[in-house]
Design goal:
Elements: H1 2-5, H2 11-18, E1 27-30, E2 33-36, H3 37-46, H4 86-101, H5 122-128, H6 134-147, H7 152-160, H8 164-174, H9 187-190, H10 196-202, E3 205-210, E4 214-219, H11 225-235, E5 238-243, H12 246-257, E6 264-269, H13 272-286, E7 290-296, E8 299-305, E9 324-331
Parallel strand pairs: 4-5, 6-9
Antiparallel strand pairs: 1-2, 3-4, 7-8, 8-9
Helix pairs in contact: 4-13, 5-8, 6-7
Bound molecules: zinc ion (ZN).
Length: 335
Amino acid sequence: MPFLEKRNEPIENDTRASRGIGTESAAHWTHDVYVPGSASRDAARRSPQRNTTKQSCGNPECTKSWTMPWKNRRRPIFEGRWGCSTRCLEAVIHRALRRERGDLRPVGSEDQDVPHQHRIPLGLVMLSQGWISQTQLRTALEAQRLAGTGRIGEWLVQESGVTSAQITRGLATQWSCPVLPIDGFAPSAMALTMPRLFIERLGLLPLRIASSRILYLAFNDRLDASAALAVEQMSGLRVESGLLDDSHYEQARQRLLGSEFIQTNEESFQDAEGLSSRIATILEASQPLGSRLVRLHKHYWLRTWLETGAYGDVGTLPSTGEDVTDTLFTLGRQD
Ligand SMILES: [Zn+2]
């Protein structure tokens, strides 16, 4: 069956490598050039200098001209790179940390964490679409003003007889995103996509995977582009964000929170040097076949894949909670 065979083609490895996550033998990096597994094995057979195809130190500033030949170069791997020493591993991690902090972003590039200030107010969106009347909007605004609290959507439902489904539709128009259907929601698989904390405290709600390459990520009343990007980088999948109706959202959230998550540790550090060295220590102790660091707001999320079996069939998502560990770090003073 050619359709099934396709899944085993190098696309999967390519995805992993382009996300900077190493696999044991199918692929590796030589400096910055990705060499697909089959090609490198062929090259190794043909080449008189076999050891040139071995993983070389991933630290561009490495000054060592040789490494003990018996040293395992398959582990630990951080973002597709191997460090010849603790010092080199730390240097590679430190660079990733700077990238995630935004220190390496080109000048003038948009900061993902700045919230959008210029969205058309929900009431006006709904009015211009003809979904509510002037009177309904006026009533809700007046109620909101008197109460001095609550979102306009809530007041439209409470005071003006608008349904929550209409509000969700209005929010989706405001955010230019779809209202996602709840069909196909797979809580146990989705619980493996990210730490529980992101669902509990940041309101992310991974819904389902389509065509083995798109992860649908739902939110309740506003999108979070920065979070979507982080999940995209960690999962190796394209993330499509959308909104869920209130009742669907609550229902799905409860089911998801009732599922089993990947073991997650939380740690806090004063400075980036301390954090880099801590990550190096974790990697040297656990010797993962792959690991990656992404930032999601104040959280630096390190995921480690300890064995080949830790990878599932979709992106870099694990198929079970075994042999995968998440660590969430925060940096600096946290209030
Ligand atoms: Zn080195």
